[in-house]
Amino acid sequence: MMRWSGIKGALASGVCAAAVAVGGFGVAAAQEALTEETYGPTMSEIRLIVGDAELHTDARYWPELGEDLDKLFPMFRQIEAFWGERGNDDAVAKTLTTIEALREIGQAGIAMDQGSARSGIRALRATCQSCHDVHREETADGYRIKPGS
Ligand code: HEC
After folding, report:
1. Best CA proximity match to 62, nearest among 1, 129, 112, 107
2. Ligand 1 geometric centre to CA of 39 (Å)
3. Alpha-carbon gap, residue 34 to 31, rounded angstroms
4. Spatial distance between the Cα atoms of 84 and 19, rounded to a whole number of angstroms
5. Residue 17 CA to chain centroid, in angstroms?
6. How many angstroms separate the CA atoms of 33 and 80, rounded?
7. Cα→Cα distances 100→47, 61, 76, 93, 139, Å
8. How far is CA 121 from each of CA 46, 97, 108, 126, 144, rounded to the nearest angstrom?
9. Quick check: 107 and 65 in contact, CB under 8 A?
10. Residue 34 alpha carbon to ligand 1 centre in Å
11. Among the atoms of ligand 1, which is closest to the Cα of residue 98?
12. Digits of tens for pLDDT over the chain (149 positions)?
């Protein structure tokens, strides 16, 4: 019960958060640069937040979806910087496609359009897959960056 009245009150700030997320600027600079050691753990965190975003879309919890995006944008800016540093243009391009999908979800969140948010999340997951297919390798105890990537 509280939840629903809370949502209405929080909506304005949530839309704001989503609007900031759509811009996605300014935050990345404050983040620490990723290393090969912190890259995998960051990806695992991303996976959890994308799961949250999907649940929040299903529940139409738009302010919470905005918060998820506020976390994901700076993380993918870090990923972009990581690959830029390595001179891997293909991985940078794939990361930018991921960021595009985040924008699509952000717009859908602002419009409170569940169908568009869901298709944005599908597009997002497809971009994860497209990068994993080329730049990720499975090892005996998890994953690693493909040698040469
Ligand atoms: C630009 C390339 C790229 C994109 C985009 C990308 N990943 Fe990854 N991901 C990698 C690479 C490379 C690894 C292997 C590195 C590692 O695990 O140490 C990885 C590893 C992972 C892992 C395993 C982490 C571990 O080591 O246990 C998860 C989980 C993951 N990614 C989730 C995602 C999700 C979810 C998305 C999309 C929302 C995504 N990734 C988008 C490149 C990418």
Report:
1. 112
2. 8
3. 9
4. 26
5. 14
6. 10
7. 17, 21, 11, 11, 30
8. 13, 13, 10, 9, 24
9. no
10. 13
11. 5
12. 344 444 444 444 444 444 444 444 444 444 689 999 999 999 999 999 999 999 999 999 999 999 999 999 999 999 999 999 999 999 999 999 999 999 999 999 999 999 999 999 999 999 999 999 999 999 999 999 999 99
CA dist., res. 93 & res. 145, Å (int): 16
31: its two tokens: 């983040």
User: Quick one: tokens of 109?
Assistant: 């969140």
End-to-end CA gap in the chain: 50
| 148, amino acid identity | G
Please give the single-letter amino acid code of residue 102.
L
Tell how far the Cα of 128 is from the centroid of ligand 1, in angstroms: 7
Minimal-distance CA residue to ligand 1 atom 40: 128
Please give the Cα distance from 37 to 35 (Å, whole number).
5
Q: Which amino acid is at 142?
A: G
Q: How many Å apart are CA 116 and CA 106, to the nearest integer?
A: 10
